[in-house]
Amino acid sequence: MRSIKVFLFLITLIACNNTDVLYQSDEFTLYTYKVVQGDNVATIESANMIISNYQSRASENFSRLITFKFSINEKDNENPSGIDHWIVINGENKSPIIKFGQQDGPIPAEPEKMLTTNYEYTFRVDMTPVLNQFKEKGYFITYDGTRISKDDFKAVYIAGSSQPLTWDFDNLAENNLGLKDSDRDGIYEIKLVLNPEDLNQRESTEWNLTHDLSSRPSYHSDQKIVDALFNLSLEEAILTIEPDSTLRTGIEWPGVWTRDVSYSTILAFAFHEPEAAKISLKRKIARGRIIQDTGSGGAWPVSSDRVIWIVAAWEIYKVTGDMEWLKLAYEVAKNTLEDDYKTLRSIETGLYKGESSFLDWRQQTYPSWMSNADIAVSENLGTNAIHYQANVILARMAEILNQPNQIYQQRALAIKAGINKYLWMPKKGYYGQYLYGRSSLFLSDRFEALGEALTVLFDVASQEQANSIIEKSPVTPFGVTCIYPQIPGIPPYHNNGIWPFVQAYWNLAAAKAGNGKVLNHGLAAIYRAGSLFLTNYENFVAETGDYVGTEINSRRMLWSIAGNLAMVHRVFMGMSIEENGIKFQPVIPSNYSGIKQLSNFRYRNAILNIEIRGYGNKIASINLDGKQLHNSFLPANIEGAHKIAIVMANNDISTKNINLVKNTFSLTNPQAILFTDKIVWDTITGAANYNIYKNGTFFKKTNFNYVNIENSEFAEYTVSAVDKDGVESFTSEPILISKNEDMIFIQLEDYYSKSKLPYSNFTGNGFIEISPSINTEITVNVKVPEEGIYLLDCRYSNGTGPWNTDNNCALRSLYLNDDYVGVLVFPQRGKDEWSDWGFSNILQINLKKGNNNLQIIFKNWNNNMDGEINDAMIDYIRLIKL
Prior knowledge:
54 strands
């Protein structure tokens, strides 16, 4: 009898526990009161306390096989991409002496035993081949023919795949990966601690609320885990407010960053901390324009997503109704978008150029061959989505302020049309990542989560497209990855990474599309991480769900906090802040059913207390102080304390599909070279075939590692590798075919005084300097025998800053026969590396028969983010006839 009672008790307990399950997968289970992921458990003790025993397992799987290569001046210049050194550590603590540029044999299989933690190891490289060339020639020639001037040589670094090594060549100095030659024998060394582990990591930690939240909104529901994480995020939001009332980006990221504070403001801070958000956005204004933070090649216009500021500023206006703020935001938005229109717009596609929004780490989301000049001409999904929305908002701002607005509406529609014409992929059912290349652009068919979400939220996508995007886009077990598939050989960060703020925008898009399965998966991704980690980390590894193992991470990250808070306000409570009030559109999966109460929510001159019962995305009834609230819309002029009661219709939102897939990597892109009348590339392991593209369009497919070509006509070729599942790699670096007689080189020192600066590796008799005060207007005459279309670019150097950061990208306006053509972009190529020459972006021009007047002019819209330093050296102008 007793055994029967015990059995019945267990059955009852199991039944009760099943109702507490919010999400379950092979990787983890999310309950209303805890998270279980293997041995890792986070328990919600109360709305003010979480206990977690989470421990990273990253150090337990650290391979003894180490792949790496050496670098001069933080460039990937020792061997071709994919040709790496390797060692298998078997108890020794010092590598053999490796000659710079030597190529090792094939990389062996992974050893079974792993490397112990905190293992000291010294890497050694013989730099005498480089130093001898410096002595004999004054420069060193790398594997691809690039000359490194002796005067430009700064340091030798090591890059690699095993922590603390990184493949992020742009940040090797910042990561203290420079080698030293202490005894000046040409052998450079560095001692590193491999598989670093914090031995003081506690096995069990807890979060306890310590700050007074009485002045903030209060949330209570039948899901304790949501209540606790809401309070944890409220507390972290308070802690982000600096003494100067700005919003700190994260514990590891001091200061205000344009995109971080903007995306955070849109998600939650406009209504949680409107004054702090307003002060922070004001900090990102200079010269009456939005500041593009330091970034690839010297920031704007290589990076061009600063206009997300406009969307954030509009959100603050909608929350506060502050007309003075609107007037300021309008002027800043107008000035910024005018500069961007002249600088970024592609005449061919109507799209805007510049790096993917927030994905600002070059090799994390672009093929390694792409220079910053290449990135500057790429046309990205997310960046164009926010440019569309920024123009829509500017048009509305202008209308409110009785200013002309049709031009901004027209520009917005042109961008929307370009996105849908050039980036939509009907076979996949979602948008491509970006257009990329050199003279001809090609669509990358990778998925890009933030951009996809923004097209749904901003109505770039039609309702049919939005449903397709949410249903067909790939999501992985621990959440939606920034891109998919992942890039091989690149450590987790944007690549192979999940970012809670991106997940939050994805969840908002899923809610808008009414897809309960995708939304439920996305909520679990945010709540798992927050509960186990006891903070809002910036990112975690897609494959493992671990916060350890990404290139950079930070606790208490502003936009992750905002994403967590937004799940309550924007999803469960369904609050959409409009110009004249709040529209309620709750979206609640059935497993999150029950009673939800949001109290003390301050909106303009009102204090709202909101209660919701049930689930679904349809409202059965909604009352304001006991009376029906028409159209589920609360007007902005309401004052005082009020109660809003919502009863949901309990409709099923789990009928739409989810594309839950394993985390996948594409193949490495081929390295192609030209041999007379054929293009040859390295054989890619795992490739089922190769796709060849000519001038941006598909040319042919082959199973061989070469293709015969006709080299008597202009063409640009690229090659990609396709695996057995049809997953395609990035393309190879473009190979440009042109006859010598179709190329014109204009040595500018023949027209203007050549610079006396002591730089080398130029062609001809010298080079000229350009700055805001030197050669501000360059005019040359070009005579051609017949009319034709030409490509124009410049060979230049810019040593004002490093490849990956700062704000000194130089730019100038190109005019042909007095008509404006576009902007020439000269990104930074390395701090003080003025003898490192490369090519600018390419512009297409139509030369008439006879004389043509070319001008390169410094115009007011050519001011960069530095505002003063806008310098470059120009070797020559190159013209190529198509």
